[in-house]
Amino acid sequence: MNETIEQRQGEVLDAVKVGAFLKDMIPDLEGAIAIRQFPSGHSNLTYLVTFGSRELVLRRPPIGTKAKTAHDMNREYRILSALESVYPYCPRPLVYTEDPDIMGCSFYVMERIKGIILRRDIPDSLNLSPNDFTRLCENLFKVLHELHSVDYHAIGLGDFGKPKGYVERQVLGWNKRFRAARTPDVPDCEVVMAWLEEKMPADTDKPCLIHNDFKFDNVVLDPEDPLNIVGVLDWEMATLGDPLMDLGGSLAYWIESGDPDEIQLARMSPTNGDGALTRREVAAYYEKLSGRTMRHYDFYRCFGIFRLAVIVQQIYYRFYHGQTQDQRFQKFGFMVAILEGVTRGIIERSDL
């Protein structure tokens, strides 16, 4: 589900400043402000801001050192504003500001989409049969394909990214990020990075808008019909690029019931449940929807897992160097090692 907690120490917002700003910018906000925090995010910080019965969501960058091009609130706000009229799963954006006097950083606010967010396991209360869960998995990738089918030029996002050379930039860029964020207690990943550089496919001839973090806990299900997806969240890595790279990112999170125990430890979504599509079935289903081929399946999955390892390592780097006290991140170095092992297994079995 989508519970909130009291704001974590060191991440507390100034309710007086935030409340005054929002009442100036958003009509019809009444009553006292209340702020709670969504606990599950590992990157940008996300808060539930309420005024009476009105519920808003505020997004801001994390505390501490961060990559120069990451955590760009303006990019998130821009893509939500552009997609609002053509992609019905976006939260409605309300206000964006770069005023440092409010909280020392840029942030934006959007309407909250109420519903169910699946975490590690499916709640028993949903009563999903294996057939239901198969349909939900299919719906998840239908929604992804709908995003990939948006005419991004028509909604003013023709300059939102650089599709030419996208795969190469991603591989070289994430390799560089890993080397910059590596701590001495994790694998060096040099074999994996060399393989990705050697095996990367050519640019797609059909670039599109990609989400870049599309997974179960970034979608919202309708409480009245949990097979129906009503929202897509966390647009911080969206850009223009190769949709199969986007799919590979999704497959990085797709842990199956037959995967080894150490991989199950890294599972964050119920993709091992009865009725879940396998990774190969996901790829085949997307091929059917899109008409694209997954000839480089091993590359896309391996890159997706490596990129996830880099994201985890960047977060762990902040914990390792004392830039965050969030104890959730204490074992992230161990997770990096697990993910590196998965990528090595893909490489050893691949016929690319």
How would you characterize the overall build of this protein?
With 352 residues, the protein is α+β, with helices and mostly antiparallel strands. It has two domains: 15-111, Phosphorylase Kinase, domain 1 (2-Layer Sandwich); 124-349, Aminoglycoside 3'-phosphotransferase, Chain: A, domain 2, CATH 3.90.1200.10. Helices cover 39% and strands 13% of the residues. The protein contains eleven helices and nine strands. The chain has a five-stranded antiparallel beta sheet, sandwiched between helices. A two-stranded antiparallel ribbon has the order 6-9. A hairpin with a 2-residue loop joins β7 and β8 (225-232). α4 (130-148) packs across α9 and α10 (297-320) packs antiparallel against α11 (332-349). The longest helix has 24 residues, at 297-320. The radius of gyration is 20 Å and the shape is globular. The protein starts with 14 loop residues before the first helix and ends with a helix.
**Rg from C-alpha positions?**
20 Å
Order of helices and strands: HEEEHEHEHHHEEEEHHHHH
CATH architecture group name of the largest domain: Alpha-Beta Complex
Tell me, briefly, the overall form. globular
- Mean pLDDT, all residues: 93
CATH superfamily heading of the largest domain: Aminoglycoside phosphotransferase (APH), C-terminal lobe
Number of strands: 9
Largest sheet: 5 strands, antiparallel
CATH topology-level fold name of the largest domain: Aminoglycoside 3'-phosphotransferase, Chain: A, domain 2
Give the C-level CATH assignment of the largest domain.
Alpha Beta
Count of discrete domains:
2
Share of β-strand residues: 5-15%
Compute the number of helices.
Answer: 11
The poorly predicted ranges are: none
Distance between the termini: 40 Å
